[in-house]
Amino acid sequence: MNNDQLTIINDRDGDLMAGSREVENTPCDPIGPDSLKGIPRQQTKSCRWDGTGWESFARVLEREGILLKEDRPTCSIYLSDSGGMAHGLPHGVVIASSAEQISRILKEAQVHGIPVKCRGGGLTTEGESVAFGGLLLDMTGMSRVLSIDEEEMTVRVQGGTYWHSLAEVLRRKGLDYLSAPLNMTASIGGTLSVGGIDINSPRLGCSADQALSLQVVTPTGDIIECSESNNSELFDGVLLGYGQFGVITEATLKVRPFTPITMHYLYYKSLGTAIRDLFMLARNDAADYMGILTIMDRAVNLLVAFDSDERENDFSARWKRRLKGHGEMGFGARMFGHYLLRPWRIQEALYLLGRKKALMPEFNPCHHMQGDKIVDRTVVFSRAVWKFWGGKQMVIPDLATSEEKFVEAVERGNLVCRKYFSRYTLYCVGIKLLGNPRRYEMSCIPPDAEDIAYGCEFEPILDDKTYSNDYLQSFKNEIYDIGVELGTSYYRFGGMMKGYIRRVFGDEVVDRHLAMKRAVDPAMILNADVIS
Amino acid sequence: MFGLSKQIPTASLSMEGGMHAYKDCNGCGVCTLSCPVWHQTHNVTLTLRGRVGALKGGASAEDLKESLIACVLCGACASVCPMGIDTVGMTIDLRRILNLKGESPLAICLSKDEDYCPDHAPDTVLQGTDFFLPGRRLRSNFTILNRLKKHLEIEGVCQAMDDGSDIAEAIEAGISLSNERIEKFVYPLRGAKRLIVMEGILHRYLRGWLPGVEVMGLGIALLNRKEIRAALTDRDFYVIEARGYNGDYDNMVVKYDLVRRETDCLMNLDLMRAAIPTGASGIQGPFGLGAVSPREQARWMLEERSFNRVVLESLDDIESFKEETKVPVIHVSELYPV
């Protein structure tokens, strides 16, 4: 049997059966089956660009004094992304050094029809930052913090800068950024292009919403400064624009005074109850940071944290008693009773205990603590993320929904996780919306969300087990299918997610964006595989 | 021989060991954040992350020559790696391969260096419980060396005749060492309970060669003494020797954190609590092969910091700091009079 003919079919009971079938008139999918019922399988893997015009393009760059690396060792560095499921080599790599350099590259790319893929930290999981031929523009070459305005409380920073590198500079002045992914190697430009969710996002919004102005190199090579009041169309196109409308070379961001944080943990047995408590806290602005982190659906942990004692005291006085979660001792006693009555689940109980025992010290390392406050929350969380959830393949499909749909989306996603994996984690967080700016259209912000949107990542714990890409892709598709059925959105588009964009947003919206893209990028060369 | 061969870890001095660790890398890139080469060049191809990516794509040591030579072996990447990869061992192994292929400019330069004497070790066997191995730079500064000896004599520590500085240099350059030379170096130290070793790069090897012997850096050895800690103030910028600290991160981060809390002094630690190096200890500098400017590193460490004095553990760092600041720059041994 040909591997390409292998497919996995859901039977009526939701169990998996392996079988084969001929798929007529549809391209063969080497990545995985499409589990959408009634919809033909579609090609989800990007095809390698054929290289037409590359040689003349490369010669022009050489003449312009732009260092283009075409050797295999250099190109291999960018072979995959954090997802580890999409693999592709660019024809060549340029390490970005200035807006002017990028401008010259894009102008030539338009002339020669060369696809250009931008990459920051490479933390995408669907191959969005993998180049299947063409030029890879490594934005991390532009990683400098340019200036800090302590009066205006803003920072000007180059687009390839890692959030952690920015934090290193800001901390020396007692400052911090507002919100950023809990991942130290996310780049600022990449984050602003997709959203950027922190556990303070229920209060402060996504990272993209903290941008005040941007320097952008458009797909045709113009260098343009833009903001809400200046070239606002470009500003809204680039923020949450998945890299389609320009390359973010500089950004001015809001900053705030740095504060250590105090954490509280509440434990739940029910996902729905924990989520409803998260809704209540988010709606009432009852905590500075909040999110849900689970060990399967057995131990559901609502984390809340505070920048100040005042906020913490207010939470304790007004909100804590309304929450249905338990403290560690109370939850431990309930779990003990639960497993005492279900001795056949002893392995699961031992796993929960072991996981908690390993995790908790990571969240309170003495050298990152100041009394009972965490001093470097992003370092602490990011290290824990990579240590306990990281791996060579980061499989984290997500759903982003309005409040009304969130419980159902998470509970259905949870069932999919249980079907595919014995160990997994759910991570839920809210995103405060800043009105209804144009940039929210066709983004991770679901169209029907009001005031606060919610997102959930479904992350299997792969450990050392080996799964086929087909298996992992099937899992992801089943999660994403829930989004199609419920009318939600996703954090990720482009790469292997490309097939979903029309299904969730509809032809009218996608065609309008496609027309906008074609208008600013005639040769369709810049990060073009999001919707094209 | 001296019966030591079983104690020499093959993984740490052979090519079969560390270089394959790249296969465990998950590509998170956290190593990049603390890398001095990255900080100065913003060129991923010169970093560990770049080397690992290239190796996964089938690159050879020769393909990575520029990157391998750029690394200052500060070990910051190892201290923050969530996968616990022996990044320093990997780079050293690759340098050794590079040298075997005749492609290592470091090894070529070092072998021409008049000061490099791979067989200078004395035959004398010292008897003692604790030894101090000052390294080449400290050995040549008689004033500080004598002060240190007096400090350490109080604790019954005597200077080892053979401090293995040639071994440290050879390891760094990827030059293979004979077991005879290693055994000659290690044999007199076998009876020790504690070794105070200035060359941070030797720590990991000594721990492997002499299991059960406590190996520590000079700084933490001195800071163990209350009167020296008491001489540190919140107006001091204290510069930890990065290789020793990062190489024993799990222990050092706790010990130095206690010192920091007790004294309120500033330290050359980044937000991940990895020690920021100047890179001056690297052997590239004198040969003009370095990608890292120690002076720029010193500038970065001091930027936006308020202090009245700089206190150094490694004399290698002294010039960089003296060029970057007008406040007194002293060695840790000068904190407290003998």
Task: Give an overview of the whole structure.
The complex is a heterodimer of chains A (532) and B (338). Chain A is an alpha+beta fold. Chain A has 15 helices and 19 strands. In chain A, the strands form four sheets. In chain A, strands 15-16-12-14-13-18-19-17 form an eight-stranded antiparallel sheet, with helices on both faces. In chain A, strands 6, 7, 8, 9, 10 and 11 form a six-stranded antiparallel sheet that branches. In chain A, helix 1 packs antiparallel against helix 3 and helix 13 packs antiparallel against helix 14 (469-486). Chain A is globular and about 75 Å long. Mean pLDDT of chain A is 90; it is low at 1-43. With 338 residues, chain B is α/β, with parallel strands linked by helices. Helices cover 44% and strands 8% of the residues of chain B. Chain B is built from 19 helices and eight strands. In chain B, the strands form two sheets. In chain B, strands 2-1-3-4 form a four-stranded parallel sheet. In chain B, strands 6-5-7-8 form a four-stranded parallel sheet, with helices on one face. In chain B, helix 18 (294-302) packs across helix 19. Chain B is globular and about 55 Å long. The termini of chain B are far apart. The model of chain B is unreliable at 1-16 (pLDDT under 50). The chains are: A alpha+beta (532), B alpha/beta (338). The A-B interface holds A 69, 71-80, 82, 84, 89, 95, 121-122, 138, 140-144, 160, 162, 164-165, 167-168, 171-173, 184-185, 366-368, 376, 379, 382-383, 386-387, 390-392 and B 26-30, 32-33, 42-45, 49-50, 53-54, 56-59, 63-64, 80, 82-83, 253-254, 257, 270-273, 303-305.
Q: Short description, anyone?
A:
Chain A has about 525 residues and is α+β, with helices and mostly antiparallel strands. Chain A has helices spanning about 55-65, 70-75, 100-110, 165-170, 190-195, 200-205, 230-240, 270-285, 310-320, 330-340, 345-365, 375-390, 405-420, 470-485, 500-520; strands at about 5-10, 15-20, 90-95, 115-120, 135-140, 145-150, 155-160, 175, 210-215, 225, 245-255, 260-270, 290-295, 300-305, 370, 375, 400, 425-430, 450-460. Helices cover about 35% and strands about 20% of the residues of chain A.
